[in-house]
């Protein structure tokens, strides 16, 4: 089963990663889910696929009362991001799902009603969590044409969806990047193929370089912290993406 690891805590404000399931079938990609808690409410980021819902729900329940989830944030439309939506809504039909307007009429095929979805504009917007404004940040064409990340100014954390993702071998399963040079080799091919636009990549690097970020949290792989955050942004800025190798 997955486990939870709280990696930021200041009073009632917490970030918890739901990670690493040794029992996960090998044909499924490993994913990180993140829970943001503030003043007793929670927002779940990229809750994952339907097939891992039991593992995510069980791990989350050990940390937080799921009935206090106010919503779900979906960085984009992929099944490993949000195909568990109907299962979460079955437990709590009042939850909102925040997603790019571009996918707001596609993701309902996974579940929900017209009242479920909050369509995020291309420029992003503030998402309130118990009075705390979290900021949806544009990341379009970085894996998905309608793609958004989530910035927490108070915690100085950027949830970066598939940007920063790495497909790690079995002997490198730590929560944090410990050796950037060794780690980034596992991110290289993923970013070259799955990121579709050099211009969009450059805009994202400029945009997030203006944010005060202590930790950059991707949906796959390990968390970048401290100097590795800007180290990753610089590496990504120089990488040529959107080119398939035949």
* Number of strand segments: 13
Return Rg in Å.
17 Å
Anisotropy-based shape: globular
Helix residue percentage: 10-25%
Low-confidence runs (pLDDT<50, min 5 residues)?
A: none
The N- and C-terminal alpha carbons lie at a distance of: 38 Å
Widest sheet, order of strands: 1-2-3-4-5-6-7
Task: Give the overall average pLDDT.
Answer: 93
Content-based structural category: alpha/beta
The proportion of residues in beta strands is 25-35%
What is the element string, with H for helices and E for strands?
EEEEHEHHEEEEEEHHEEH
Query: How many helical stretches?
Result: 6
The main sheet comes to: 7 strands, mixed
Keyphrases for this structure?
single chain; 246 residues; alpha/beta; seven-stranded mixed beta sheet; six-stranded mixed beta sheet; 6 helices; 26% strand
What does this structure look like?
- With 246 residues, this protein is of the alpha/beta class.
- The protein has six helices and 13 strands.
- The strands form two sheets. It has a seven-stranded mixed sheet, covered by helices on one side. It has a six-stranded mixed sheet with strand order 8-9-10-11-12-13, covered by helices on one side.
- Strand 4, helix 1 and strand 5 form a beta-alpha-beta unit.
- Helix 5 packs antiparallel against helix 6.
- The radius of gyration is 17 Å and the shape is globular.
- The protein starts with a strand and ends in an 8-residue tail after the last helix.
- It comes from Azospira restricta.
- This is MBL fold metallo-hydrolase.
- It holds the Pfam family ODP.
């Amino acid at each position: 089963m997955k486990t939870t690891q709280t990696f930021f805590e200041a009073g009632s404000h917490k970030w918890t990663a739901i990670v690493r399931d040794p029992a996960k079938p090998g044909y499924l990609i490993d994913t990180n889910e993140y829970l943001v808690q503030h003043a007793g409410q929670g927002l779940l980021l990229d809750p994952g696929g339907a097939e891992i819902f039991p593992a995510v729900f069980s791990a989350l329940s050990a940390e937080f009362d799921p009935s206090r989830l106010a919503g779900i944030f979906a960085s984009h439309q992929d099944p490993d991001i949000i195909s568990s939506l109907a299962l979460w809504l079955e437990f709590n039909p009042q939850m909102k799902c925040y997603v790019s307007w571009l996918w707001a009429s596609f993701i309902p095929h996974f579940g929900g009603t017209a009242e479920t979805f909050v369509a995020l504009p291309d420029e992003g917007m503030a998402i309130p969590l118990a009075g705390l404004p979290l900021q949806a940040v544009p990341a379009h064409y970085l894996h998905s044409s309608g793609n958004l990340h989530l910035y927490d100014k108070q915690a100085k954390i950027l949830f970066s969806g598939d940007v920063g993702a790495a497909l790690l071998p079995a002997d490198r399963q730590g929560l944090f990047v410990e050796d950037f040079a060794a780690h980034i080799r596992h991110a290289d091919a993923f970013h070259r193929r799955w990121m579709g636009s050099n211009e969009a990549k450059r805009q994202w690097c400029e945009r997030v370089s203006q944010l005060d970020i202590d930790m950059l949290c991707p949906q796959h792989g390990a968390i970048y912290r401290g100097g590795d955050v800007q180290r990753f942004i610089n590496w990504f800025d120089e990488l040529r993406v959107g080119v398939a190798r035949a």
